[in-house]
Amino acid sequence: MDTNRVRWLFGDQLGPHFLDSPDQAVLMIESRAVFGRRMFHRQKAHLILSAMRHRAAELGDQCRYLQADSYTEALARIDEPLEVMQPTSWGAVHFVDRLAREREVERLPARGYATSREQFATWAETRGRRRLLMEDYYRDARTRLDVLMDGAEPVTGRWNYDQDNRKPAPKGSAGVGVPEPPWPVEDEIDAEVREDLDRWQAEGLRMVGQDGPRRFAATRLEALTALEAFILERLPTFGPYEDAVLSTDRWMAHSMLSAPLNLGLLDPLEMVRAAEDAFREGHAPIASVEGYVRQVIGWREYMWHLYWYLGEDYRHRNELAATADIPDWFWALDPDGTRANCLSHTLRFLREDGWVHHIPRLMILGNYALQQGWDPAQLTAWFHQSFVDGYDWVMVPNVVGMSQHADGGVLATKPYAAGGNYINTMTDYCGGCAFDPKVRLGERACPYTAGYWRFLHRHRERFAGNPRMSRLLRNLDRLPDLDQLLSEDPT
Ligand code: SF4
């Protein structure tokens, strides 16, 4: 082994598990080109820069922190051989591969995920497996990693508590009875980041959204504090209300840990072990703990592996031939761009924080885009830029596969399309809206309800052979006013 080697850490490889020894030589590069290549939410740009600069300050002399216009320019200043852990996008992997043809670079496997690429491939290619179902993957991961297991069986005998975790929004209430997460205290590094971003924007860098106060952990210590507070104060309530949405409480009992987790500040296994301990010590009910474990080593890792396993062209899939452009107000996260109360509120929260939880993402934002027939590639870029925890690997499968059904059903057996009734049940938005979720025609027609039927009609032939869609298509056929519905303005 070359002892001169320098480990180049990307901005999402910031935790101690990305080092092999406490005094390892580290390189970090803050490339301005990264922030010009695509639009960023200002809160996200702040978080990434703050996290990188905090990590560099922690590492002190052992880290060379270069600020440059591009990675290439910074790397020209480094003579030592490099080692690089697999980055988190196809684009970055190709960059490292090109680099390795020009200079000495040792490429190492990815870290920060509980399941390796080889383990996923073994699971995916098991003889007789016809579909890559998340539930099957999740059970395999639980068994292999021995999480919430008693021997070969799931603890309590049940794998899945989804049915217990779908309580509707407690309408009229200001929250779900948990304290707010422990907010980070900004320091001089955050002040510097804010100044730099102000200057970059004055120089022409385009960003979207608001910056501050910083809402998400940027250091390992902040991330551990947030994890501990979640386990103690919020996890017991997380499960039942994980799918509910309240206009009065944008955080509810969610962990807010996806951003620091995707920055590499936390390891997924330490998170699920902490949740499991809470269950085994009698502090949190199984439904909440199982729901949380499912998100961390189930959904998240399933997305990560599918991103690689389904190949680089997967991002271009557009099986529903959705080609409409996303309107400017949506790109700008402008809550005044729509009179739909649910969508307007969601855009306002997103503009302020760069974050809403998975149900507004899937059932308010994604569902609307699906009904409007917006181009899934544009929508992937929109999600990537708008969310503090958005990275290519997570947004491509989430948007193309799960949210927009653009892969024709590889990830999800049916599209996540729903009318206003679902939103009325799971949120408290409809009471204050100009529209009525039960109405599909005229002035008071809910855009989600009308949009849902138009969507089904548009894709009637495609879904005709899908047994999970047949009841919905029969309901469509029974609509007495379908012709009128189709003739009204769909916006
Ligand atoms: Fe959203 Fe329709 Fe409810 Fe208004 S009525 S909040 S548009 S679901």
Classify the helix fraction into a percent range. 40-55%
Biggest β-sheet: count, sense, barrel? 5 strands, parallel
Helix vs. strand class: alpha/beta
What is the 3D shape? globular
H/I helix tally: 21
* Gyration radius, rounded: 23 Å
Low-confidence stretches: none
Strand order of the largest sheet: 4-2-1-5-6
Beta-strand share of residues: 5-15%
Give the SSE order as H and E letters.
Answer: EEHEHEHEHEHHEEHEHHHHHHHHHHHHHH
Overall average residue pLDDT: 96
**Strand count:** 9
Distance between the termini: 62 Å
Listed once per kind, the bound small molecules are:
iron/sulfur cluster
Characteristics of this structure?
491 residues, alpha/beta, 5-stranded parallel β-sheet, two-stranded parallel sheet, globular, binds iron/sulfur cluster
Descriptive report:
The chain has 21 helices and nine strands. It has 491 residues and is of the alpha/beta class. Strand 5, helix 4 (90-102) and strand 6 form a beta-alpha-beta unit. The longest helix is centred in the middle third of the chain and has 24 residues, at 286-309. The radius of gyration is 23 Å and the shape is globular. The relative contact order is 0.10. The mean pLDDT is 96. Bound molecules: iron/sulfur cluster. Iron/sulfur cluster is lined by residues 340-342, 420, 423-424, 429-430, 433, 435-437, 446-448. Residues 340-342, 420, 423-424, 429-430, 433, 435-437, 446-448 line the site of iron/sulfur cluster (SF4).
How would the blueprint of this fold be written?
Layout: E1 6-9, E2 26-31, H1 32-37, E3 40-41, H2 42-59, E4 63-68, H3 71-75, E5 82-85, H4 90-102, E6 105-108, H5 117-124, H6 134-145, E7 149-150, E8 153-154, H7 188-202, E9 207-208, H8 220-238, H9 258-262, H10 268-280, H11 286-309, H12 328-331, H13 341-353, H14 358-372, H15 376-386, H16 392-403, H17 420-426, H18 447-458, H19 460-463, H20 470-477, H21 482-487
Parallel strand pairs: 1-2, 1-5, 2-4, 3-9, 5-6
Antiparallel strand pairs: 7-8
This protein binds iron/sulfur cluster.
Iron/sulfur cluster (SF4) binds at residues 340-342, 420, 423-424, 429-430, 433, 435-437, 446-448.
